[in-house]
Design goal:
Layout (H helix, E strand, L loop, with lengths): L1 E7 L6 E6 L3 E6 L3 E6 L11 E2 L5 E6 L5 E6 L3 E6 L5 E6 L6 E6 L5 E6 L3 E6 L4 E7 L5 E6 L5 E6 L3 E6 L4 E6 L5 E11 L8 E8 L4 E9 L3 E10 L6 E6 L6 E5 L4 E5 L4 E6 L6 E6 L5 E6 L4 E6 L1 H6 L8 H4 L4 H10 L6 H6 L4 H5 L3 H6 L6 H22 L18 E5 L3 E11 L6 E10 L2 E7 H11 L15 E3 L1 H14 L2
Antiparallel strand pairs: 1-28, 2-3, 3-4, 4-5, 6-7, 7-8, 8-9, 10-11, 11-12, 12-13, 14-15, 15-16, 16-17, 18-19, 19-20, 20-21, 22-23, 23-24, 24-25, 26-27, 27-28, 29-32, 29-33, 30-31
Length: 509
Amino acid sequence: MVTLIHTLADHGDDVNYCAFSSSLLATCSLDKTIRLYSLNGFNELPYSPLKCHTYAVHCCCFSPSGHILASCSTDGTTVLWNTQTGHILATLNQPSGNPVRVCKFSPDSTYLVSGAADGTVVSWNMQTYKLFRCGSVKDGSLVACAFSPNGSIFVTGSSCGDLTVWDDKMRCLHSEKAHDLGITCCDFSSQPISDGEHGPRLFRMASCGQDCQIKLWVTTLTDFLGFELKYKCTLSGHSAPVLSCAFSYDGQMLVSGSVDKSVIVYEPNTGSILHTLTQHTRYVTTCAFAPNILLLATGSMDKTVNIWQFELKAHCQAGSPEDEPKQFIEDWSEEEVSVWLCAQGLNDLVSIFKMNNIDGRELLNLTKESLANDLKIESLGLRSKVLRKIEELKTKVESLSSGIPDEFLCPITRELMKEPVIASENPKWGHEESDVTKKNDGTKQICTSSMVKTGVRDGYSYEKEAIENWISKKKRTSPMTNLVLPSLILTPNRTLKMAIDRWLETHQK
């Protein structure tokens, strides 16, 4: 169940963008202002609205810590604001002087990327507020940008319909036509997925465009495979251009807003529609999920921002069909089975399954004999892959239906961990102390700091045997981040082990 809990109507013109931090909501508008609201009651902050842009504000985004807000405008600038005081920290001038249409922080706050109407994309160093690297696309305005969760790549979308993939050195890795009439938005799911072959180092991405479509993609970046961007499926539902899309923090929902004035919430694994929201009276220009709670903000050309809250129980029940008890998979329609096939990279089998009327119940009952004799799938490898995917589906739903917390499952095996360990990851250069200085005009803050080498972990726990096998077969890389492991020492996660033991004692009585 989803409920409209607030409507904000403070802007004097079209709302162009919404963004959440863990405690704040930011909105920006054609009225040249940015407004900030507390998530506690949605009261506007005392120093809001923020004013300095001389033309429309197209996009705004928080740094991962929430301490800095970036906003970009037709005036050719990207402005950095202190979210505690509302003061300007820096004004970043796009080198070309063209209108800046989109801006995004990297997941580690090291860089801010800004994209402009002339196709230029700039990476700004967030320690010095200086230009780091600059690139450009061949045609069109840059109107969309999203970082992968591990920060190793970011994707830009253009008004000509091209998706372009860049690495953190601003090298172009890939470009392809994604939406014929132009891209409007793109977003990564924060949750990694696994294809059963490369481990959980794949990330789902959504893009939407003027062609009224939402497309789902999977991105891969590995040392031995290089970069891949694979199209998975297209989600239908809107009858007009789709202007915005965003994943929920847990990856279980995808929302979109359209010129048809509607907001649609999808379950991304099946493409099924969970909710259709029709309260806006004009084009829906922006959608944003909060980073850690089930809140959704939608903005519109009707000058309002609607705040929606999802009931936790309903959200859990409306998750991926792969996350539902077995009896719900038996209720899948033929179309839901087709979407599942696409999500598994088995697009070529969709027509065969439809021709044979394979629904959820039939899917669970497939055998190697029925695949060969009834469905006439000649390839032994393809038959084996289908059966493996079905077994993975059964195993996953059985684990999840038993109520095992996800953090107790090994990211590699998706099984309850017995010996959880943490692997060391690449040492990073970090900042030990920072000195803050300002220019005489008070508009720019420059941070300098001494650099220290700090060893960090990848933040994920694994089953000891699984990570040992991974390292022996897949080189010395982290399964979750793909960064090189400088050490093969595995540190026991005793805190997690104790939590798992306590859970087992409670649930095995």
